Amino acid sequence: MKWKTRIIYLLMGIFLTVVAWVTALEYVSYDVEHYMTEFEKQDWVPQAGMDRENLKHTAEEIILYLQGEKEDFQTMAVKGGIYQPLFDERERLHMIDVLELYDSARLLRNISIIGLLLLLAWVVYQDNKWKNRVLRTLFFTGLANVDMMILLGLLIWLDFTKYFTYFHLLLFDNDLWILNPQHHVLIQLLPESFFINTAIKIGLYAMGSLFALGIIAWQLEKMLFRYQAIRNEHS
Fold first, then answer.
1. Which helix (DSSP H) or strand (DSSP E) does residue 105 occupy?
2. Mind listing the pLDDT tens digit for each residue in 84-100?
3. 56, 120, 193, 232: least CB-packed within 10 angstroms?
4. Is 32 within 8 Å of 55 (Cβ atoms)?
5. Which UniProt keywords apply (predicted)?
6. Structural domain spans, the chain
7. DSSP summary character for residue 79
């Protein structure tokens, strides 16, 4: 196989990985039950001064904002027995930055889908062994994502706080992400443990789907090889 063809199949695997991880990111971060489960795990219902109904309302408002369905991040809810705005200016400005990251991720995912389809059309037209090579690409993409999940787990196990800080320093050009848990409701509701569990869940969904796809592709490739061998014997 020529090096240009190898690069094309490598790009297909990368595009597929981007699609899977961004889709998993959206699936988890748009799931209100995920938030409620994490709130209850951390016993944030009494600590945040909000009952379950108001916590669910707040989670739904966060989701709407991340989906681009809500212009302002501000949310009104009952906290400490008082119906009040939950977030101050610092939290709202930080979430503008977060929304920009989500918009960028969605754009990258959409570009990856288009790129994947274009490359698939190219290999079907240009490569007479495209069926075998596409299946093999799916298999190795699945294996590569298992490695990515192991790396993610290792970083979390070693020092999540350290690498989570690096993540923020890399992606944000300000310090608005540094919030005070004594004053800021956002970090009260979404502490570090929330992000640890969310990252693991996203990784498991993305890796699991690609690994399952890779196993299916591996089995299909074996069947294809047998079919091709039988066909060559009778030709």
1. helix 89-126
2. 999 999 999 999 999 99
3. 232
4. no
5. Membrane, Transmembrane, Transmembrane helix
6. 3-233
7. E
